[in-house]
Predict the structure.
Amino acid sequence: MALRRTAVVDVLGRAWANLWRWTLFAIGTLLAVYFLLDRGLADGATTAIALAVIVIGVVLTPRHPMILPLLAIPGAFVTARVSIGVGDLTVSDLAIALGFVIVVLLSRRDFSPTMRAMLWLNAVYQFATLFTVIVNPYPQNTVEWFHAWMLISGALLLGWGIGRAGLMRTGLILIVATGLVVALGTIATGVIVFVTEGVRPIYPRWPWPMHKNFAGAALAFAILVVFIKPPHAHLPRKLTVPSLWIMLAALALTQSRQAVIGLIVGMLLYVLRSGAGRHKVLVVLLAVPGAALIIDSVIGQIESQNRFNSTYQRLEWMREVYALWKHEPIFGHGLRYWYVHPTANFQPPQAELEVVASAGLVGLAGFGVMWLGILIVLWKFWTTHPSFGALAFAVVISRLVTAQFDLFWVAAQVSIPFLIAGICLGAQVWWREQNPDTREQPLGGRRAQSSKIEIQGKMGVAWNSATTRTR
């Protein structure tokens, strides 16, 4: 009798788990359909693809709960707008949010010290900006407060869930594949533009319309993945080498100067610290002409005296933002104030200026603590776990450098590097769990000894077991 009662309880427990899980995915699918069909994506092809991906994810989820978070990775690159009440979110925002919910409910949350530190540092910034939300009570301000948290902590947790499930390889391949799609769309658009309009910066029109600076940033992150190529991800050379050159060519077509600067800094730091000798020539070949072209472009724009080019426009905006900030120096004018301000209707073109105008000196202090702390903990993570930390640090520092010359709080440009960092952090914990008796050699001296680490055990067997395990 006791055995029968135990069997019944076990069956009911499994049924209940499947019931609430399917209910969750059904609600998520209904909301996605509502937003896509009723709220804003006029592109029929994009809508059809998005719906198909969601349906596939829901069908496959009972076999592996990380399917939807994995499918959120390519969605994180889509910048098509979805209007939701007072918000003006992107498909990237919705993809990150959906994947985040699944990870929080179904993934393991045994966070490493580095992961916990990054979440707390983001919480410091969120607390600092809470004052401007209280002082400036308008809907966009409140929505953006939650949005900013999701772009960093939400993306981190999404990446953590993917890496913690042993899916680092799959996640990074999806990032590279999406980068290749963006690159091919940029090249195809470039061919058409060069024939019809002549040589000019390329704003990709396919697979969805993108600003050149967003396309450049997305390509830079994917390039860092194939350039650093974490050893535990086992990215095949036949994928990384052609992908690298295709995406570099597309990045050159966009003429996104800030993305190039961020990429060069990320590459240089990786080569100098890890001693990756085989990459030094490549970095020099990219950095020297890239820096020369950027400097020549800026000098040319200054000498042209054209007050409407990007250099003069940014300088004018910076002066206007400074003048605006002086009216509310402590708590700022509110997050996304340019949506409601009668005269300052543009987003500041530099990270710290945007934060100080939006959240004042209090918010800027929180922003500084967050970024300085994140860079310190990732640098230490790189030292102790170089096989995972090199990529995490490179993509995050690349984003910070890029933000010194362009907008900061832009959905995918913030979430993608933290998504990649989260994957690396989660993958390190998963790898340690699979290889408890293997010590990872820390970074030391002038060279990254870890770049030569042989992964102990049969990683292929561990990979197969991870894809069938549900926790």
